[in-house]
């Protein structure tokens, strides 16, 4: 009985596989029919569009279109000339020589600079005489004077390295 049940199970599995294949084929055919119908509708509509375009273009002449476009371009040029003429302000004797204006500006700048220089106050000269030999400076001053240029040189070298890395 178990052997018979196993054979029956195998037969059912084979039938199930066949039915599944048949359903897949039917589904594929259904999709193909739908695509065919869609393609037919698209082609029909494209035909209508082609006929409509042909009918619209029947009364159009390419030479007439070129002439029309040239007329439009000419009229746009005329409109631009009119617009330019209107937008340029009328020169009623108020034209100035650019070189004269630049010379006057430089003269005014020089006057302003001279005025600023008159107001500069210089420090007074010391009234005591300086010693003939320099005196002994404290060690801390000497160290600071020697270290400061070294620090400046290190900063300059770092900036040059950054500049070189940026440039490359």
TrEMBL record:
Listed GO biological process terms: late endosome to vacuole transport via multivesicular body sorting pathway; protein transport; vesicle budding from membrane
Broad class of the protein's primary localization: cytoplasm
Entry keyword tRNA processing: no
Keyword terms of this UniProt record: Coiled coil, Cytoplasm, Endosome, Membrane, Protein transport, Transport
Domain of life: Eukaryota
Membrane topology: Peripheral membrane protein
Transmembrane in keyword set: no
UniProt family annotation: Belongs to the SNF7 family.
Protein name in UniProt: CHM4C protein
Species, as recorded: Oreotrochilus melanogaster
Highest classification ranks of the organism: Eukaryota, Metazoa, Chordata, Craniata, Vertebrata
Gene: Chmp4c
């Amino acid at each position: 009985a178990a052997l018979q049940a196993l054979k029956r199970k195998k037969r059912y599995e084979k039938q199930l596989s066949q039915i599944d294949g048949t359903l897949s084929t039917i589904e594929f055919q259904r999709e193909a029919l739908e695509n065919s119908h869609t393609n037919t509708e698209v082609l029909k509509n494209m035909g209508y569009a082609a006929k409509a375009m042909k009918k619209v273009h029947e009364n159009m002449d390419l030479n007439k279109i070129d002439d029309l476009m040239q007329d439009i371009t000419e009229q746009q040029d005329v409109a631009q000339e009119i617009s330019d003429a209107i937008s340029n302000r009328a020169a009623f004797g108020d034209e100035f020589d650019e070189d004269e204006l630049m010379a006057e500006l430089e003269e005014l700048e020089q006057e302003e600079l001279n005025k600023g220089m008159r107001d500069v106050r210089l420090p007074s000269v010391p009234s005591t005489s300086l010693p003939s030999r320099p005196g002994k400076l404290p060690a801390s001053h000497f160290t600071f004077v020697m270290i400061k240029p070294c620090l400046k040189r290190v900063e300059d070298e770092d900036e040059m390295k950054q500049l070189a890395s940026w440039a490359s």
